[in-house]
Amino acid sequence: MFVARDGLLVEIESPGPTETDAPEMPIFLERDSDRHDYGTRDLRAGFTLELSVRLESLDAGLVLLDNRMENGKGFCVRIARHGTLERSEVAQPAAQQRSFYCEIRIMNQCDEISLARQ
After folding, report:
1. Number of domains, the chain
2. Closest CA relative to residue 27, chosen from 7, 8, 43
3. Cis bond leading into 23, ω under 30°?
4. Residue 30 φ then ψ, to 5°
5. Which of 15, 28, 41, 94 would be 32's cystine partner, CB 3.0–4.6 Å?
6. Plot region of 28 (φ>0 → left; ψ -120 to 50 → alpha; else → beta)
């Protein structure tokens, strides 16, 4: 399996710890003092999350990755009902949760899980 190494911040080999510190996230927005409404400027920053896992089952509720803080801010990747993959996120503590669902395809020849848009 090919893993992009340029800019790689965390790699956890199996069997890994059940918890680990997350790397510092990039700053996505900043206050734009040039705007009359003092809105935000999109800094066009982002990150890629790549997971390669072997699962015993696709039971709903199985958490693969969860970096949410006590105030709910952050994201969670878990198995949803019907064996789909759910990524839910909250950008601001008072914001509404957004969820995205993907179909999981199991590739028997290499035991990889890949994601495809629904």
Report:
1. 1
2. 43
3. no
4. -145, 160
5. 41
6. alpha
Tell me the pTM. 0.66
Tell me whether residue 35 is in a domain: no
The Cα 113–Cα 62 span in angstroms is 15
What range defines the domain where residue 68 resides?
A: 49-117
Output the tens digit of pLDDT for each of the chain's 118 residues. Answer: 566 677 777 888 777 778 888 888 788 889 999 988 988 988 998 887 777 777 888 889 999 889 888 888 888 899 988 888 888 887 776 667 788 888 776 544 333 343 433 3
Please classify residue 112 by burial: count the beta carbons closer than 10 Å to its beta carbon, then call 0-12 exposed, 13-18 middle and 19+ buried: middle
Strands, DSSP E only, in the chain? 29-31, 40-42, 63-66, 74-79, 85-90, 98-107, 112-117
Q: CA dist 16 to 11, 19, 53, 75, Å?
A: 10, 8, 11, 20
